[in-house]
Design a protein that fits this description.
Helix content is 45%, strand content 16%. By secondary structure, the chain is an alpha+beta fold. Among the domains are: 249 residues, no CATH class; 113 residues, TolA/TonB C-terminal domain (2-Layer Sandwich), CATH 3.30.2420.10. A hairpin with a 2-residue loop joins β15 and β16. The two termini are 24 Å apart. 29% of the residues are buried.
Length: 550
């Protein structure tokens, strides 16, 4: 839900910019139909542009085996200097409040429109049908006569008039309302009302609707005058009808818009066709909007909001033992599969059965699963975090569910519930028979550096000491702090056989000053305990993400 709210806010910014463009450059021109379609197009464009995603940073090419293990390793050593050991608990924040208010607004405006449509249905059903006068026998246009002093209006293929208007002014009024029906103005209003339901908080959406309805009236007035009606006589009729009541907001009412503006526009000479060239400026405006949304500071500003889910607001059930509901992301001693990481990889490789349909279709990919290692080492809440294809996803879940009991995560001397992520990589090797196709996880890259070993390298003092080191030694760059830039820099390096650090480079960056600070921090680390494989120290590639938060 948070991601949808970010999308709506971006759409609101686009709509405000586009409406300002229209208001300043084209609203005073006499291109009624062109302006109408332009305004509708800008409304639609404001909802499309936020869906376009651009990357402003250059992609980093990495070794295939590294890609397979990257998410695994990051999960093992993920560091968040400010919130390293905070448990995940349901909470209610100002972001949740905004989401609730927004949803209530959408529901209220949706209900208002449904009520208006229902009222229109009742008017059609309860009104008195009348025959169209001579010259107005247009196909599918129905005339409904209403009691009382009601301003004429139209909806879809229905024209609603009072008994007095039907008797005294049928031609001018019917010309006007039939023009609304012929040009499909009711569909414009339905689209506009849908936009308003989503953008009810945005003044630009309300102003755009008002301008669109005004353009409808300009277009209908123009149709009346082109039919040969005397302009002064028609203007006097509009003045007399200005006091009539309006029953339904969804309808195209004869007295809908500012009467003075309509009369001025009737008398105004046609605009120069070259003025249409002003619409070209919408193209750089759209490009500017897409580029602005792709900027890192905008992306990072929306990350926290996008991560918010409505499920986070659901309060927990009454707690007998708080430790049963607290779920840790990072603990002092992470959960461990019996025998360690290598045995976990071997278990997955030995137990995965490649689904026949995926095998025949040549479908490959990595299914990322997430689960909770309970305090007794059992697994719960097993789910697919990032899927590939239904049969592969189901097989990955089956393998995870069949795992034996783990060694639980520990915080100090207590076993705790810990969230854990395991990717299951499906790779088809060979092209002859199914028996020759198998799953393979590389342990050593092309440079002879291990990706995974029996005992992974360790910062002096363990995971807690590593987190403390990062938290205490990070110096937030002033320029990034002033610009409000935050994010996660992923740094990769090699822990050599003697525990020294080398081959430090940025795997995923955020912004130059944050990237440089992350590299400096890793380069200044003390000597590690080297990784061990077959009883010997070996060089191991290691990945550490460093989160910068204001």
């Amino acid at each position: 839900m948070g991601a949808f709210l970010v999308y709506i806010l971006k759409s609101a910014v686009c709509l405000a910019a586009f409406y300002l463009f229209y208001r300043l450059l084209l609203s005073r021109e006499t291109f009624w139909r062109f302006n109408r379609f332009l305004l509708l197009s800008l409304l639609a464009l404001s909802f499309v542009l936020p869906l376009i995603h651009l990357r402003t940073s250059e992609p980093v090419q990495v070794n295939t085996a590294l890609v397979m293990m990257e998410e695994w390793l990051i999960k093992e050593v993920e560091v968040q200097p400010i919130e390293a050991t905070m448990p995940v608990l349901p909470s209610f924040s100002w972001i949740h409040l905004l989401i609730v208010i927004y949803i209530i607004g959408v529901l209220v405006f949706l209900l208002i429109n449904l009520v208006s449509i229902w009222q229109m249905h009742l008017l059609i059903k309860g009104g008195k049908r009348a025959a169209m006068p001579d010259g107005f026998e247009k196909e599918n246009i129905q005339l409904v006569v209403l009691p009382g002093n009601v301003s004429p209006f139209s909806w879809m293929n229905y024209v609603f008039v009072s008994k007095d208007d039907y008797t005294n002014h049928p031609r001018e009024i019917l010309l006007h309302e039939c023009a609304h029906i012929t040009h499909g103005h009711s569909f414009d209003l339905l689209f506009c009302e849908l936009c308003l339901c989503l953008q009810w908080f945005n003044p630009a959406a309300w102003l755009a609707k008002q301008d669109l309805m005004t353009l409808h009236e300009y277009e209908a007035d123009d149709a009346v005058l082109n039919a040969g009606v005397n302009a002064q006589q028609y203007q006097m009729l509009l003045i007399r009808k200005a006091v009539g009541g309006r029953l339904i907001s969804l309808g195209n009412n004869l007295n809908q818009s500012n009467l003075r503006k309509r009369i001025v526009m009737m008398l105004k000479p046609a605009s120069n066709p070259l003025a249409l060239l002003k619409c070209i400026f919408v193209l750089p405006l759209a490009v500017l909007a897409v580029g602005a949304f792709a900027r890192p500071e905008v992306q990072f500003a929306s990350q926290d909001l996008e991560a918010v889910q409505l499920s986070d607001m659901i309060p927990a059930a009454p707690i007998v033992n708080p430790e049963d509901t607290v779920i840790f992301q990072v603990v002092q001693f992470m959960p461990e599969f019996p025998g360690g990481m290598v045995e976990l990889m071997n278990y997955i490789s030995s137990n995965v059965r490649y689904p026949a349909e995926a095998l025949d279709a040549g479908i490959e990919g990595r299914v990322t699963t997430m689960f909770i290692v309970e305090r007794d080492g059992t697994l719960s809440n097993i789910q697919v975090l990032r899927g590939v294809e239904p049969s592969l996803d189901a097989e990955a879940l089956r393998v995870i569910r069949s795992m034996p009991t783990w060694a639980p995560g520990r915080q100090g001397d207590k076993a705790v519930r810990t969230r854990y992520t395991v990717p299951v990589n499906f790779t088809i090797q060979g092209k002859t028979t199914a028996n020759s196709r198998r799953l393979e996880i590389s342990m050593v890259d092309e440079e002879g550096i291990y990706q995974v070993v029996e005992k992974m390298p360790e910062f002096p003092g363990g995971m807690n000491a590593l987190m403390s080191y990062l938290r205490e030694n990070i110096r937030y760059p002033e320029d990034a702090k002033a610009a409000g830039i935050k994010g996660r820099v992923t740094v990769q390096f090699v822990v050599n056989e003697d525990g020294s650090i080398s081959n430090i480079f940025k795997l995923r960056g955020v912004e130059p000053s944050l990237d440089a600070e992350a590299l400096r921090l890793i380069a200044s680390m003390p000597t590690w305990k080297p990784g061990m494989h077959d009883g010997q120290p070996v060089a191991v590639r290691y990945t550490v993400p460093i989160t910068f938060r204001l």
